[in-house]
Specification:
The protein is an alpha/beta fold. It has one domain: Spore Coat Polysaccharide Biosynthesis Protein SpsA, Chain A. About 30% of the residues lie in helices and about 25% in strands. The chain has a nine-stranded mixed sheet, sandwiched between helices. Strand 7 and strand 8 form a beta hairpin. Bound molecules: uridine 5'-triphosphate.
Amino acid sequence: MTVQKALIPVAGLGTRFLPATLATPKVMIPVIDKPPVHFCVEEASLAGIDHTVLVVSPGQESIAQYFNRRLDLESALVQRGKDELAQTIRLISQMSDVSVVVQEKQLGLGHAVLSAEGAIGNNPFAVFLPDDLILSESPTIGQMVDISEKNEGMVIALKKVPDEDLSQLGVAEVKNTKKRISEIMSLVEKPSLESAPSNLAVIGRYILTKEIFDSIRDLKPGALGEIQLTDGIASLLGKIPCSGYEFEGEHFDVGTPLGMLKASVYIGIRRRDLKSKFTQWISDLN
Ligand code: UTP
């Protein structure tokens, strides 16, 4: 039941990052110098998942080129004495075997997942939403794969959030929490504070099983014609085991300018090549 494939849906409109997303897919807008899609593929690769399926919108197939080997660039870098950078570039192309599925119409995250059914096949698979950047010592998705192997079912990443954020997120009702792992009883999309069953929000890492595809197929589109992944998972609860995992590590919503800014500063004040000049510059601002 080992997870071998990562599904990364990146076909959304990216309205919260307009105007940048007029010309650049949101998943390629970098946190300093590394795009969110890179963080996801790296996290998958560190967990031993070395096949990636990108779901893109029409015309954005070129996102996958980021993971192609660039022999010309590598040799140009070596000629300039930048061997370490050449090695870094080569490693990107070795992280994963990347394929692309085109989602013809942007009918929601659930629909994006369903579009990849043929490329995913019958085994459990990992889903990454690149808006959710998680920095942790060991890859969050790896912990989730271990949990899915034990419970033989689905796993959803959860994070405790403040009351005021609940109405923008999917929220889980859980029981039997032990060592950050719970049983998920129900999921509510964007609840009011009064109706939220807990403060545990769904964050964009999932281990799903093949039953999700039929479940999504059976859904009726919501208000904007969108088909939600949360609804597809919710209708499997009680039929297939589903665990929640309160992951460790720092989480940033890099799908918004504020989250992107926070992630950039967080990384900037820690990165060996940046921290001294950057922290000096920040302290001079005050
Ligand atoms: P969001 O709901 O965050 O939408 O999608 P978005 O388009 O990325 O951004 P905003 O809200 O307009 O700023 C969650 C994830 O699902 C993907 C998105 O690319 C994102 O990774 N998605 C969404 C699809 O692949 N297809 C869709 O039809 C909708």
